[in-house]
Design brief:
With 253 residues, this protein is an alpha/beta fold. The protein has 2 domains: 78 residues, no CATH class; 133 residues, 3-Layer(aba) Sandwich (Rossmann fold).
């Protein structure tokens, strides 16, 4: 069982008399996690947080990733995100389990399946060089069931490019602003829209950008209200948070 709906189904079976309380207790005891030795796979993540556990690919062998993803797949998990996965291990993984791999953000989706698309999240970048981080955010949000609009290369060096897409920005429930260099894009967008803005500093830039630290500090010091900041290059974290915001807004519809 991989989500709250299956637990509710089990409880209804107990209420209907089709399952004994003892059988249900045994099933629930087996659910929280499975110990693979090198990983403890959390099957209750979707119950607590609304989405299955995400596999961080960097630092793991292809065999470890396969073991974790296959264990999740056998328990019914679909659209399992594998982040920071390089092309070579991704090829090895794809030989064993079904995987949809995206090389630019180095992100894979194991056991890909159709998913809902609700609300509207805009992912905007300062430049084309920020696309890897932006795509990690966009794909994460899409897999979690959100409609995503991409506005790439609309940075402040050519502000007219951003202003020409104001309608899409104004329509969004949440905007993810991805930028390196001086990170000014988040402040500009934050001053234009009435929805939350998630700023993502990237490590793109010349020497004095200090690997994204300059953009991070600029975004943290933004005077635009409603602008929050995630870690450098953390597209996944931004996409996940944007999904939470978008779907909370959707409950009010």
């Amino acid at each position: 069982m991989d989500n709250k709906h299956e637990i509710l189904q089990l409880l209804r079976q107990v209420a209907d008399g089709n399952t004994t309380p003892e059988q249900a207790l045994t099933a629930l005891k087996r659910q929280p996690f499975e110990d693979l030795g090198y990983a403890k796979v959390d099957f209750h993540r979707s119950v607590r947080q609304g989405a299955a556990e995400v596999i961080y690919g960097a630092g793991k062998t292809a065999e470890q990733i396969i073991g974790i993803a296959r264990t999740m797949g056998e328990r019914g998990c679909r659209n399992i995100l594998i982040t920071r996965l390089d092309a070579q291990p991704a090829e090895t993984v794809a030989q064993v389990i079904p995987v949809d791999y995206h090389p630019i953000p180095r992100l894979a989706i194991a056991y890909p399946d159709a998913h809902a698309s609700r609300g509207k999240i805009v992912v905007a970048t300062g430049g084309t060089s920020d696309m890897a981080v932006a795509e990690e955010a966009a794909l994460t949000a899409e897999v979690l069931g959100n409609h995503v609009v991409r506005l790439y290369d609309v940075g402040v060096a050519g502000l007219h490019r951003l202003l020409s897409r104001l309608d899409e920005l104004m329509d969004a429930r949440c905007v993810v602003a991805v930028a390196g260099m001086e990170g000014a894009l988040a402040s500009v967008i934050g001053g234009l829209v009435d929805c939350p803005v998630i700023a993502v500093p990237t490590s793109v830039g010349y020497g004095a950008s200090f690997g994204g630290l300059s953009a991070l500090l600029s975004m943290l010091n933004s005077c635009a209200s409603g602008c929050s900041v995630v870690n450098i290059d953390n597209g996944f974290g931004a996409g996940y948070l944007a999904s939470r915001i978008n779907q909370m807004e959707g409950l009010e519809d």
